[in-house]
Amino acid sequence: MHGLGNDFVIIDARAPELAEQLNMPAEKAAAIANRNSGIGCDQLIILKPSDKADVRMQIYNADGGEVEACGNATRCVVKLLGDGTSIETDGGMLSGQATDTGAIVDMGEPRFDWNAIPLAYAMDTLHMPVGWEDLQDPAAVNVGNPHVIFFVDDSNSVELDRLGPMIEVDPLFPERVNVNVAHVHEGEIHLRVWERGVGLTRACGTGACATAVAALKRGLVESPVNVHLPGGTLILSWQDGEPIMMQGPTTYVFSGEANWDDFG
Ligand SMILES: N[C@@H](CCC[C@H](N)C(=O)O)C(=O)O
Questions:
Q1: Residue from 8, 70, 78 to probe ligand 1 pocket by mutation (most atoms less than 8 Å from CB)
Q2: How high is the pLDDT of residue 23?
Q3: Atom 10 of ligand 1 has which residue's CA nearest to it?
Q4: From which residue to which does the signal peptide run (predicted)?
Q5: Quick check: is 201 in a domain?
Q6: Domain end (from 64, 99, 134)
Q7: pLDDT digits (tens, 9 = 90+) for 59-79
Q8: 3-state DSSP call for residue 74?
Q9: Strand 55-61 to 86-89 pairing
Q10: Ligand 1 atom 4 nearest Cα
Q11: Which helix (H) or strand (E) holds 237?
């Protein structure tokens, strides 16, 4: 499936005997995600049984690293498993409702403390006194996973393919970071994302959540707000003390069986 062009291989291992067998070394996840020799995807998603929710969702980036959250995949899993599905992730408990064209999901409450991002040392996370070349004065938000957000004049003119990889691995971010560049035009957000462990993607759901929250906290937009990404548009709602709600489309690509031993 994909959400706005952010694409996933989803393995359904909800049957307990499958879940027990299925452990995912980083090399195997990266082999499946490889667009030349594997199936090809931005994230590999594994669905397993959960004793706290309807399903447990494990998320692997294209580089094979396991991560805590993925907004676009959350919508896809809600659409796949049905209305009201509750999802356990390493980043928190999520849930959502299917819509005609996708899903609306509760992405949990954002966190702003420097050590929850996490950052290497204490600072104001709404206006961080740091910068990289022309990218200055970012905000940082954890929405299950870590994001840094730069508000710029024109997000399309930022060399994100050059600056993203540099910022992703900066020692300020001990768990690395997803890098968002955004501008606000007529009350709507225009966003591009360099995803940790992947690179430039067509859309990042958690990036849209983190950027909308940072823009709302800075008073740049009002809720609900449209967030336009290269792959399409998400609608984000949030107010202080409440969970983030994200609405957007989902798309089926293919459903079938693959031979496990073909990968890695
Ligand atoms: N594409 C995702 C985010 C996936 C995880 C991210 N790359 C990370 O490392 O935290 C989304 O839609 O949120």
A1: 70
A2: 84
A3: 145
A4: none
A5: yes
A6: 99
A7: 999 999 999 999 999 999 999
A8: helix
A9: parallel
A10: 70
A11: strand 232-237
**Cβ-Cβ contacts under 8 Å for 115 (sequence gap 6 or more):** 122
Tokens of 181: 């560049």
Whole-model pTM? 0.97
CATH number of domain containing 74: 3.10.310.10
Q: Ligand 1: residues within 6 Å at CB?
A: 6, 42-43, 61, 67, 70-72, 145, 178, 195-198, 201, 204-206
Q: Tokens representing 78?
A: 């809600």
Residue 252 CA to ligand 1 center (angstroms) comes to 19
| CB-CB contact of 100 with 82 (8 Å) | no
pLDDT in tens, 202-229: 999 999 999 999 999 999 999 999 999 9
Same structural domain for residues 79 and 122?
no
pLDDT digits (tens, 9 = 90+) for 106-140: 999 999 999 999 999 999 999 999 999 999 999 99
**ipTM reported for the complex, 2 dp:** 0.99
In a domain, 106, yes or no: no
Task: Please tell me whether residues 161 and 231 are part of one structural domain.
Answer: yes
Among the candidates 53, 73, 99, a domain finishes at 99
Catalytic residues: 70, 204
